[in-house]
Each structure stands twice: as C-alpha cells, then as structure tokens.
Amino acid sequence: MNTASASLLRRRKLVNAVATTLASAAAVFGLLFLGWILWTLVAKGIGHLNLALLIQDQPAPMESGGLRNAIVGSLLMCGIGVLIGTPLGIAAGTWLAEVGGHSRLGLAVRFVNDILMSAPSIVLGLFVYAAFVMNTNGKFSAFAGGLSLAFIVLPVVVRTTDEMLQLVPVQMREAALSLGVPQWKVTLQVLYRSALPGIVTGILLALARISGETAPLLFTAFGNEFFSLDITGAMSAVPLTMYKFAGSGFENWEQLAWAGALLITLFVLAISLLARAILLRNRVTHE
Question: What pTM did the predictor assign?
C-alpha cells in the first residue's frame, strides 16, 4: 500500500470514528432527557393512579375526585375519529395503490396527503371549527372533536394502506385475475388479507397519536366538567383536563393532571406494543 492510500485510509477511519462518536453522544443525550421525562412522569403520577381516578368525575378545587368524565370523553372522540378516518383512509389508499397511483391525480393526492400528515393539529382544529362548529350556531360538540381527530387519522391510514398494498407481490394479483376473479374480489379477498396486519398497525398508530391531542379539541369539543354521553354537546377529554389542571394552582387538580398524563402514556405504550406484536407475528408467519 502506497503512502497516499495509507493516508486516505487513516483519514477515513478518523472521520468514521468522529461521526460514530458524535452520533452515539447525540443518542445518549436524547435518551437521557427521555428517561428524565419518563421518570418525572412516573414519579409524580404513579401515586395517583387508583380506582377513584376511573370511577369518579372531575372534582372541585381542593376536593377528591377522578377523571371518569374525561376518560369516557377521550374514548368516545377517539372512537369517532377512528370510525370516520379509517374507512376513508383505506378506500383512498386502495385507490392510490391499485388504480390511480401513477397518474397526475394520484401524485396530487399523495402530495396533499403528505401535507395533511405534517399539518399542525391546531390548524385542523381551526378548520373544523370554521367549517363545522360555526355552521352549527357555534355549538361545541364531541362529534366535532372526533371529526377534527379524523383529519389526523386519515393521512396516516392512507399512507399505510397505500404502502402495504404495494408490498403485496404482483404475482398474487395476476394469479387471482387469471382464474377469472373480479378485481373487487381480488382486492377484498387477496390484497386486503395479505396487507391486513400492516393496515391494522397503521390504524393503531393513528389511534395512539390522536389520544394525546389537545389543540384540536380546544376549538371543537371545548370541554365539560360533568359526565356526558351526548356527542352533540360539549365533552371533556383527558388532554383537555390536563391542560386545564396543570396550571391551576390547586394541588388536587395538578395531581390529577400528572395521573392523566401517565394514563395517556401507558395507553400509547400499550397501543405501540400491540402494533409491534401484530407486525412481528405477521413477519414470523411469512418466514
């Protein structure tokens, strides 16, 4: 090896060592802060996770209570968001993957979907406020809150469905079509069956994302101090209650805010583990 080659090799090794060190330091730095946040959340919230949190409603200042009304409200609005966004997202993703994916319209739809996916949630909340709440005499409602969450679910499901269907081998489509199976049956019985684990994972991840959203609900659901199952009226949610309680100055409210934050974190963790389990099971099955 000549001198120039040896010098170039040493320089590459030095650059590689510096880059590896900086990347490792950045990872450790991020993990330390993440660990600090999680430790603070667990330390301040674990002591207030009890049965009363689930069966009692929002208390008055300096009184005991729980978050039942907020938990039920979150479940209802997240459910509405998933029920609205999932069918539309699967239909749009299927159209992109099977029909118009390479057309100009398909490229435009993908572009708009990417914009919608990266749009701030508060913008989506303002849009629903202007388009829906203002047209119903300014009436805040759980349905409006669920509609704003559906706009967050929609692009995630569209992207997931599109990518999962494109991963299905072309040979499966050709084999089914060669047997005389109609296109719609190929999609329902062959493509969806193969892509189902990935699509379900995308839906679960979208659910995990919307479970902690506060900004859209401020302009749509508004919040409610009392227990309610009426989706046409204002309704509370755990993120809204946290937003209200965190800076209230009342100790019992602040404790409930920490407990609510930990509850959402545990819910997101459970959803993420479930999504990973589905993906892992699908991978093992295919192998």
Answer: 0.88
